Amino acid sequence: MSVLKIEDLKTEFFPATLLPAEQPAIATACRTFQVAHSDLHSSNLASGMPSAPTKPSTWWHSNKNDPKDHVTVRYNRRKGGDRVHVYRDGTGNMNPHKPPKRLARGSEAAQDEELYGSDCTVEFSDEEDGDQ
């Protein structure tokens, strides 16, 4: 069985100078979302993108399809699409071009759902790869 370490994901921000104080929280949310979803396990890079350039730039934004505050993120090596919306709590929407759906957890329809929550615990480790 493969074990995914949370440190395996590098997060980049474009532009890097935009609101640097918010970037650590965004990186944590991106890692939490990656760990919770098998489609993202092979990704080792997440690129955060700000809101539309016509507005004052900010990381957290909303739109008509997704009224919840989110950051638009591109994960490399993602299966089935290029963008996801990651919310402040580490949950997200794998297909942000569609409005989010809400289904009962555990229902048959929820297994095919495109909106995923995160029920995992994120633990950061200072150990090196060989010091296990």
Automatic annotation (TrEMBL):
Domain of life: Eukaryota
Source organism: Psilocybe cyanescens
The protein, known as: Uncharacterized protein
Region (Disordered): 44-132
Biased composition, class Basic and acidic residues, residue ranges: 63-72, 79-88
